[in-house]
TrEMBL record:
Belongs to the TfdA dioxygenase family. Residues 20-370 form the TauD/TfdA-like domain. Keywords: Dioxygenase, Iron, Metal-binding, Oxidoreductase. GO terms for molecular function: dioxygenase activity; metal ion binding. Pfam families: TauD. Its cofactor is Fe(2+). This is TauD/TfdA-like domain-containing protein.
Length: 395
């Protein structure tokens, strides 16, 4: 049977006109026995639609790793390194637990597990806004189902190792319970009904497309310098109520207190990344890990009228940089632009990690067990920024 696709089922909160390209469910594939032609088609679909859902998938960790690696065949290491995440206790990603025999696949979720893929016991903790945001939803509101996004991000070490092209997320156990309401708590009144334990996605392409012209101009001219060991650096810092920014209160770990680092492993990446299949630009910045922003001057011959930073800029003030990034990213997490995936067991979602942002949502109790296998690989090549033609078009 040829590979078929159908649009993802959107929740009533989503604006269908903004999801004509994003997301497809793929039908009629046996993931365990993909022919090279079928894989090529899946790869094309992934970069075209940015997220693909396969229902009723059966994948061992070895098979999940092999499938993930097929998108970047010369990569071998997990996105954060094959040994690093668990040992780096000061990292905010300390909850990641690798499958012992396949370190490129991580066990994520919530609750206590025993005898799972070679792990005698595993204590999983669903990351939630409670331990990350500066303010939290009150226990009374939480009891009534109010919750928040945790942390909008792409999966990437952003130091030493290059951002993965693709992430695969495989649901083994999904908690059952009533829908929650994700509150933004940023004065807009925005809120989003959300299935329990959902993963929320937004398109980086939409994020770029809906920017007003002066900010599109900044987006195509900007490069982000990420902090060394960013997840340790941001460890003590509290986040904004939308999970899309950090509060600038000077709490970052000082650079001389970080694990040893060297300048040559620092990552400076374009703020917009070019889709390898569609050529579209995706605004892809990890807002919490960013440390500095470089903006190139306007190219010669481009009108300066209304332009921001026409002569370029090097923004080193964290608050100024974060405020600018927030202005550019917040419109794209509006409730109508978010796809919250309502997980069913054996769902495999693969997403173009260089083209979308995502976050877990909600808070789970200790008895609400959620078990997922996640895999992504430090890429073999850096993301490609806008072409000179793109810069001239949007600057
Ligand atoms: Fe993630």
């Amino acid at each position: 049977m040829p590979i078929q696709t159908v649009p993802l089922t959107l929740p009533p909160s989503a604006d269908p006109s903004k999801f004509t390209v994003f997301g497809r469910e793929v039908i009629g594939v046996d993931l365990e026995n993909l022919s090279p032609a079928e894989f090529a088609e899946i790869e094309r679909l992934l970069y075209t639609h940015d997220a693909l859902l396969f229902r009723n998938a059966n994948l061992s960790p070895e098979q999940q790793y092999a499938f993930t690696r097929a998108f970047d065949p010369t990569s071998e290491s997990y996105a954060h390194g094959n040994q690093k995440t668990e040992s780096t206790k000061k990292s905010i990603l300390h909850y990641l637990k690798m499958i012992p025999r396949v370190p490129q696949v991580q066990l994520v979720g919530n609750g206590t597990l025993s005898d799972h893929e070679g792990l005698e016991t595993a204590e999983l903790k669903h990351p939630s806004h409670r331990t990350f945001h500066k303010t939290v939803v009150s226990p009374e509101d939480e009891a009534r189902g109010a919750t928040r996004f945790c942390r909008w991000h792409m999966d990437a070490a952003l130091y030493d190792l290059l951002p993965p092209k693709v992430t695969t997320l495989y649901a083994l156990r999904v908690p059952q319970g009533p829908q929650q309401v994700c509150r933004y708590d940023d004065g807009t009144g925005d809120e989003l009904p959300i299935p329990l334990g959902a993963t929320a996605f937004v398109s980086g392409r939409t994020m770029f497309d809906i920017l007003p012209r002066p900010l599109q101009s900044v987006a195509v001219r900007a490069r982000v310098r990420y902090a060394p060991h960013p997840y340790v650096w941001m460890g003590p810092v509290a986040a904004h109520s939308t999970g899309l920014a950090l509060e600038s209160e000077g709490k970052e770990v000082s650079l001389d207190q970080l694990p040893p680092w060297t300048e040559d492993k620092i990552q400076v990446l374009p703020a917009t990344w070019k889709n390898p299949v569609t050529g579209a630009l995706h605004f892809q910045v990890h807002p919490c890990a960013a440390q500095e922003l470089f903006v190139d001057p306007l190219p010669e011959g481009v009108s300066r009228e209304g332009a921001l930073y026409p002569d370029g800029a090097h923004i080193t003030d964290l608050k100024e940089m974060r405020d600018l990034l927030y202005k550019m990213q917040r419109p794209a997490i509006a409730p109508s632009l978010v796809y919250p995936h309502d997980w069913k067991e054996k769902d495999l979602v693969i997403f173009h990690n260089r083209g979308v942002m995502h976050t877990v949502v909600g808070a789970l109790g200790p008895d609400q067990v959620r078990v997922f296998h996640q895999s992504n690989l430090a890429a073999s090549s850096a993301p490609v920024g806008p072409t000179l033609e793109d810069v001239r078009k949007y600057a």
